[in-house]
Write a structure and sequence with these properties.
Oligomer: single chain
Bound molecules: protoporphyrin IX containing FE
Radius of gyration: 21 Å
Shape: globular
Mean pLDDT: 91
Structural class: alpha+beta
CATH architecture: Orthogonal Bundle
Number of helices: 17
Number of domains: 1
Largest sheet: 5 strands, mixed
């Protein structure tokens, strides 16, 4: 492979086998760690804009993440393509889809405080209980079948049901929430793009339906608060300020997208990886309480469900390493590549649940946007692995992962599995 062959902007790049991706990022890390890529022409024809620089070293990603005043999120945190300026329901699409993830301090800090105030110790304990109960129910439900699509029947159910329960989404609406959040994150892949619709139209339609659902839920709770996060967000106040209905709707979409797709993919990659490494699977079941925390980190490091997040340089003359950035330069923080930096991880492409993968950036690098749900995600992964080890320990994938075509989410759409049910 030559460095000129690498085009992180090209859809085809993200459809290549993972070892191709590994090789490409290794090359970028050693030969051109701030390489510039143009945005594809079909987008710039309609929305003229700059390309982006890729950050691929662990130390550079850490630095950009920490220096949030220099490299901000407010001009598009999640995507190298600018969403700013495109309107949805009279709101800028960037702030609508991003909520706090696309904001900078002080607004970001305030919003994060309001949201955190909704997670009281009592509510956290209740959420942890629901994770346990929902995981048990999922495994009991599929148990006797002997085979399943691990993504649809297990991995996607747990985070979805946990978030829906946390927010108080009525049971009758859970499938709608599942379908629409798939569209928002997976619209680049034909399987999730509704027939006859373009990507932007599909995303907007899905967001519209989720907003309508949230509006109904908020209306209901206006006079009759319930014991859920939606009610807490509606009534929470920090420095005399409350969230608007639109802010809550956009936070709901962020939670669905940030909390669902990520955890689902971590679990699915985990199942694929344990299948590929049966010795590690046996070791995990035999010494679960010691190895599970390491396995949960290693799965997220290796899979890096969020491939990158974007930042924007806020002024001229900002340096990272030997590169100088100018105001408005976009930088993509490739968490996926930082998690395979041999300076930090020995034999980085190897999946190894015995390693201490603590410094991985699967949940983002240290900084104001570090994943708000990391604790919950770790809990979901550990609890689900424990239930699997208990009831269907011989589970294994019977086909390679059917991967999502995306430059942003390292996803699996289907993973057929087979197993024997113990109890
Ligand atoms: C394995 C599962 C997960 C992974 C890999 C993951 C990954 C990430 C990453 C990389 C970021 C950093 C964004 C940035 O750098 O701009 C982030 C932020 C965030 N995550 Fe997670 N996440 C996971 C699970 C969850 C869950 C379960 C929730 C909530 C239910 C959640 C909620 C959020 C929120 C709200 C933010 C934005 C925080 C902010 O901007 O201040 N995540 N996540």
């Amino acid at each position: 492979m030559k460095i000129e062959d690498i085009d992180l902007s090209a859809t085809e790049f993200w459809g290549q086998p993972l070892n191709y991706r590994e090789e490409a990022f290794d090359l970028l890390r050693t030969q051109d760690p701030y390489r510039y890529f143009e945005i594809p022409e079909e987008i710039t024809e309609m929305f003229p804009q700059k390309g982006f620089h890729s950050l691929v070293r662990h130390s550079d990603v850490a630095e950009a993440s920490r220096r949030s005043e220099d490299f901000c999120s407010g001009q598009g945190a999640t995507s190298v393509v600018d969403l700013k300026g495109i309107e949805l329901f009279g709101e800028d699409m960037n702030s609508f889809f991003g909520s706090m993830i696309s904001m900078d301090d002080p607004r970001h800090q305030k919003l994060r405080k309001i949201v955190s105030s909704g997670f009281t110790p009592r509510r956290l304990a209740a959420i942890e209980d629901s994770v346990q109960r929902i995981a048990e129910e999922i495994i009991q439900k599929i148990g006797k079948q002997g085979e399943c699509d691990f993504v649809l029947d297990v991995a996607s159910r747990l985070p979805l049901l946990v978030i829906c329960e946390m927010m108080g989404v009525p049971e009758s609406q859970v499938d709608l929430v599942f379908e629409k959040s798939n569209v928002i994150l997976g619209a680049g892949d034909d399987e999730y793009l509704p027939e006859g619709q373009d990507v932007l139209g599909a995303i907007m339609g899905a967001a519209f339906e989720l907003t309508a659902l949230m509006n109904d839920m908020l209306e209901e709770r206006q006079d009759n608060p319930q014991d859920d996060l939606t009610s807490a967000l509606l009534h929470a106040e920090v420095d005399g300020e409350r969230l608007t209905t639109m802010e809550i709707a956009s936070f709901f979409i962020l939670l669905l997208v940030a909390g669902n797709e990520t955890t689902r993919n971590a679990l699915s990659w985990g199942m694929h990886l344990l299948t590929e490494h049966p010795d590690q699977k046996t070791a995990l079941w035999n010494d679960f309480e010691v190895l599970a925390p390491k396995a949960a980190e290693e799965i997220v490091r290796w899979s890096s469900p969020v491939i990158y997040m974007r930042r924007t340089a806020t002024r001229d003359g900002l340096r990272i390493g030997d590169h100088e950035f100018s105001e408005g330069d976009k930088v993509a923080l490739y968490y996926w590549a930082a998690n395979r930096d041999p300076q930090v991880f020995e034999d980085p492409h190897r999946f190894n649940i015995f390693r201490e993968a603590k410094e991985h950036f699967g949940y983002g690098a240290p900084g104001p946007h570090f994943c708000l749900g990391a604790h919950l995600a770790r809990r979901e992964i550990t609890v689900m692995l424990r239930e699997i080890g208990r009831s269907i320990p011989d589970i294994h994938a019977t086909a390679p992962p059917d991967r999502l075509l995306s430059n942003f989410i390292n996803g699996i759409k289907h993973l057929p599995c087979s197993y024997n049910f113990i109890s």
